[in-house]
Amino acid sequence: MAYPQAAQPQPVPPPSVKVILTSAELARMVDRIAHQILEKTQGAADTVLLGIPTRGAPLARRLAARISAFEGIEAPVGVLDITLYRDDLRRHAVRAVGPTEVPRGGIDGKRVILVDDVLFSGRTVRAALDALNDLGRPSSVQLAVLVDRGHRELPIRADYVGKNIPTALSESVKVTLAETDGSDEVRLIAGRAQS
Amino acid sequence: MKHLLSGADLDAATATLILDTAAEMANVAGREVKKLPALRGRTVVNLFYEDSTRTRISFEAAAKRLSADVINFSAKGSSVSKGESLKDTALTLQAMGADAVVVRHPASGAPHRLANWVDGSVINAGDGIHEHPTQALLDAYTMRSRLGRIAGLHVAVVGDVLHSRVARSNVLLLATLGAKVTLVGPPTLIPVDIGTALAPGTEVSYDLDAVLPTADVVMMLRVQRERMDDSYFPSAREYARRYGLDGPRMRRLPDHAIVMHPGPMNRGMEIAPEVADSPRSTIVEQVTNGVSVRMAVLYLLLGGLT
Amino acid sequence: MTESYLIRGVRVVGAAPTDLLLRDGVVAEAGHGLTAPGATVVDADGLVALPGLVDLHTHLREPGREDAETVESGSRAAALGGYTAVCAMANTSPVADTAGVVEQVWRLGREAGLVDVQPIGAVTVGLAGEHLAELGAMASSAARVRIFSDDGHCVADPRLMRRALEYVKAFDGIIAQHAEEPRLTVGAQMHEGEVATRLGLTGWPAVAEEAIIARDVLLTEHVGSRLHVCHVSTAGSVEVLRHAKARGVRVTAEVTPHHLLLTDELVAGRAVLGTPELAGTWRPTTSYDPVFKVNPPLRTASDVAALRQALVDGIIDVVATDHAPHALEDKECEWAYARPGMLGLETALSVLLAVVGERWDLIAERMSRTPARIAGLTEHGRDPAPGVPANLTLVDPAARRTVDPGELASRSRNTPYAGMTLPGRVVATFLRGEPTVLDGKAVK
After folding, report:
1. How far is residue C394's CA from residue C437's CA, in Å, rounded to a whole number?
2. Cα angle at B181 between B180 and B185, to 5 degrees?
3. In this structure, how many other beta carbons lie within 10 angstroms of the beta carbon of residue A2?
4. N or C terminus of chain C: which is more exposed, having fewer CB within 10 Å?
């Protein structure tokens, strides 16, 4: 009787793997998104970054760190676990619930930027919007992703995109980060579909 | 895990997962919208053959906060009082599409029987003098949140152990989580073989005062006055004098120690009002934690592919 | 003129193969190479002949609970189990506490004609433990009752027990006691011990049995009567009986097949048996299954071991089934609400073979000769030999069978051995020279 813990990185990559973003490229993209956020939010005023676990959470912290480095502005960072809002709970063995950390000051009246690694069907973002709705009432919600791989199933688009990567449905995009996986990289894996 | 029938169903990893999940569920109570959509479309039946408003309400609140549909099926005013068998009732619930049945029953093992007859999950909400596993989980949750850990704690469980489902489930779960348990009470109310029967390492003492100075947790069990009619002890007064937790006894505890009670309390019998209302008392927290723990159990049983 | 049967090559009580000719209700001849023109030949190569088994403790449920068992269905189950006589317990509805009821049961047994049904009379009116039933009237009725028992209830009042023991001396009666001190078993659900503690079921302590047996053997000695102890279940009871027998008290005792094999761990869903290898892959399907609820309760493995030894030593005289059929609804329920009792007639011999092995003389002694003597059934319990009434059963010791409740002849299904593979099979049973079972099937 064992429950799955939070998604673990694949230790051994399947045969057909292509590195599409190196560590340095990934870092440049985080920098660019940070600049774009500063631009589009008038210096990140009243802005809260909420990372969606697993890899959205460290990405949000990195963005906040870059914003701080560029402009000296401390944007509040939190974590929004969306497990209990997923629309596919019943299709999988029960998923462990992760922590949700709302920064002090809350989200009411704030501009919330949701941060995730890959934007695919849009269902994760839909769940995040629902979860957000139960937490409070932001003045607006934006979305930042490292990779947009297409194949949307819901009317959702990102406000900040690191890189658009056209993919086949049979392929998957795997982001690894030093905080969660030991190293920074984005890989395109052929052969089986996953978000 | 399909059912939660006994504290023995839980290994340390699963029990810890439930407690961790409960901690997340607890955050919901502080939010504007105290509701999660995780169990939308699931049906939870509260099947209660005994009056226990507090337990039923706790499960009901837990299920509703997870957006499950709740059906309360009470033994009174239903076909149960017309003598319908548990099996026939089970088939009825089955036909109604119950995803989980929360059952309270005066007969030990009734939830185990029920689990044979329904496809859904069965959660034991107290069976006879056997077990009450969600109570043990909420007690463990309370200890962890108050004292920061469970492993290594010394827990004294005091009172009518013989007739206590709370004691049985706690002994099993606390042993799994690495606490040391001492059962305290008159010899008539402590089965001599309870240690070997439930968890080796469990100790027994007939002397409350000797146990208190080393206890991190004192869990007082409800003692029914009627027990004295069966000569388990001579009188309520003698019981209170030997095994009741009063102010002077409470002051023999280490400073950090907490006092727990599953409720409902017999003030003046097993616990003095001064103790029940003291800052050491976790009695109200236990009720609050009960909802979070039951949310966690319901989610982990029903939240995935079933 | 009845048919005659020539049984070829049978090992009588395990001895070398021989032929038996059954004619006119008796064993007419025994020896090698018998011929009997017109006789039906039964090939008994590899089979063992035992004197027809005699059960001192059967619940036939008629009158009152014909949905659970009738005299006829219970008789058929008995014949299939190798029995030629059963003693029917008195706890029917109405209770067999008058000459009228015992004669009714006796007559139903005769009409069924599958085994001899010897009624047991109640000791007290309505089994209430207050007033003696008309024991003498039952003794002198057509049923000729000789054993009296309130089985299911203990004759707990020591004065009443003393009177009953004294009173039956007038007609050489015997009191069969259900030894259970009722004040020590209030609300009891299973053997008091670790398993009961773990399962939260109120315990039935061994001392509740032992205290009554100790009291009763002393009373029996004091009044110079005869006592039979029903379904002995604890190691401590064995010690009390050993002591009493050494003192010369006229006490006999029975043990059930289930107390020789099954343990209280089964209630927790664990397959702990007195013969561990028998379990194999078998295990209870669930915990708290009331098919294992019985009174007295299943005890510990060390009790089982003591009972086995006592059976071999003769401290326990008899194996009796306590065959207790119950309707489905009385078992498919919560443990506490289920009725106690197990089927036994169709599996007893197989369980004995599993417990003591092919010790045929011991089996004949404990399951036929001694119980027949206690019950005063002079036509039963006699090894097949010329001139002896032809009450016998043929057993295939090499056969194995997996118990299927649906295949039992009993009207009820509450066998604790469902799915278990047991040794031995009854191939044929003869009652006064007439087959009641042939080829393992009931003849009628």
Report:
1. 9
2. 155
3. 10
4. N
Q: How far apart are CA C380 and CA A72, in angstroms?
A: 106
**CATH code for the part of the protein at A22-167:** 3.40.50.2020
Q: What number is the ipTM of this complex?
A: 0.94
Residues of B within 8 A of A97 (CB-CB) are: 20-21, 24-25, 299
Annotated domain spans of chain A: 22-167
Q: How far is CA C326 from the centre of its chain?
A: 16
Contact B101, B118 (CB under 8 A): yes
Using a CB cutoff of 8 Å and minimum separation of 24, what contacts does B195-203 make? Answer: B196/C194, B197/C194, B197/C195, B197/C197, B197/C198, B198/B168, B198/B171, B198/B172, B198/C197, B198/C198, B199/B171, B199/B172, B199/B174, B199/B175, B201/B175, B202/B171, B202/B175
**Per-position b or e across C43-56, b if 16+ CB within 10 A of its CB:** ebeebbbbbbbbbb
CATH number of the CATH domain containing B74: 3.40.50.1370
The number of distinct structural domains making up chain C is 1
CB contact under 8 A, B37 and A2: no
- Which chain B residues are closer than 8 Å to A83 by Cβ? 38
3-state secondary structure of C433: coil
Question: CA–CA separation, B82 vs C217, rounded Å?
Answer: 46
Task: Answer yes or no: is B269 within a domain.
Answer: yes
Q: CB-hemisphere CA count at 13 Å for A86?
A: 22
How many domains is chain B built from? 2
Q: What does pTM read for this prediction?
A: 0.93
At residue B104, φ and ψ (nearest 5 deg) are -115, 130
Contact C335 B86 (CB under 8 A): no
- Across C164-180, b (16+ Cβ under 10 Å) vs e yields bbbbbeeeebbbbbbbb
What is the bridge-based pairing of β-strands A160-164 and A185-189? unpaired
Is B3 in the C-facing interface, judged by CB distances under 8 Å? no
Per-10-residue mean pLDDT of chain C, 444 residues long, equals 89 97 97 94 97 98 96 98 98 97 97 98 98 98 98 97 98 98 97 97 98 98 98 98 98 98 97 92 93 98 98 98 97 96 98 98 98 98 98 98 96 97 97 97 93
User: Which residues lie closer than 8 Å to A25 by C-beta, 6 or more apart?
Assistant: none
Whether residue C288 and residue B109 make contact (CB cut-off 8 A), yes or no, is yes
Same domain, B138 and B127: no
Neighbours of C429 (CB within 10 A): 30
Classified as helix, coil or strand, C396 is: strand
Tokens (6 digits) for B107: 């007969």
- For residue C147, the enclosing domain spans 52-381+400-420
Q: What is the pLDDT of residues B79-132, one digit of tens each?
A: 455 578 999 999 999 999 999 999 999 999 999 999 999 999 999 999 999 999
Which residues are within 8 A (CB) of C382 and not within 5 positions of it... i.e. 6 or more apart?
C51, C369, C372, C388, C389, C391
Show the domain range for B117: 7-132+287-302
Size of interface A-B (CB pairs under 8 A): 61
Q: Give the CATH number of the domain where residue C413 resides.
A: 3.20.20.140
Residue C373 tokens read as 């003597």
Q: pLDDT 10s digit of each residue in chain A, 195 long?
A: 445 455 555 555 555 889 999 999 999 999 999 999 999 998 888 999 999 999 999 999 999 999 999 999 999 999 999 999 999 999 999 999 999 999 999 999 999 999 999 999 999 999 999 999 999 999 999 999 999 999 999 999 999 999 999 999 999 999 999 999 999 999 999 875 444
Q: Is residue C390 part of a domain?
A: no
B223 and B145 in one domain?
Answer: yes
The structure tokens 């709970």 sit at A89
Active site residues of C: 322
CA distances to B192, B220, C93 from B188, in Å: 9, 17, 39
Put simply, the answer to whether C288 touches B87 (Cβ < 8 Å) is no
Interatomic CA distance for residues C236 and C212, integer angstroms: 12
